[in-house]
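INTERNAL AUDIT FORM
Audit reference: QA-55
Scope: verify that the stored structure record matches its stored sequence.
Auditor: D.O.
Record contents follow.
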Amino acid sequence: MKSLRPLAAFAFSWLVAATFIAAAPAHAQPTLVSMAETPKAYKVDAARHVYKSYAKDIYKGKLPPLVHAIVVLEVDVDASGKVRDVNMIRVPTHAPDVTARVKAMIHSISPMPAPSRMGGVKFTEVWLVDKSGRFQLDTLTEGQR
């Protein structure tokens, strides 16, 4: 019977570990790290993070010739990837709800990838928003028809 004790101990520790993993919040993510050395390069990593976080909200294909709203903003990210500030540079006056939604979306996906080689970064991004609410970021846009 002594030969079963190590197996039982392993099974118990596996069960305890599985319980903690299952109890982790669904939105918890591992810390993401960007190896970008410039704000321009970091912007690509940040855009990919936005696209991954809001995959169902991305406008697939080329955007229509006229988009509903364009939001230009500057995002300030600290060394750990936490969004420090979102400065709205250009907002659609006819669609204030879009501005509020974009700002909330950015804050909700903080932390962004940690800019490990820059110790913090500020970058500018352009959000192109369709009437449906779906969007593309200028950094990863598929263009317009």
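Auditor finding: record pair retrieved intact. The first strand starts at residue 33 and ends at 34.
Action required: none
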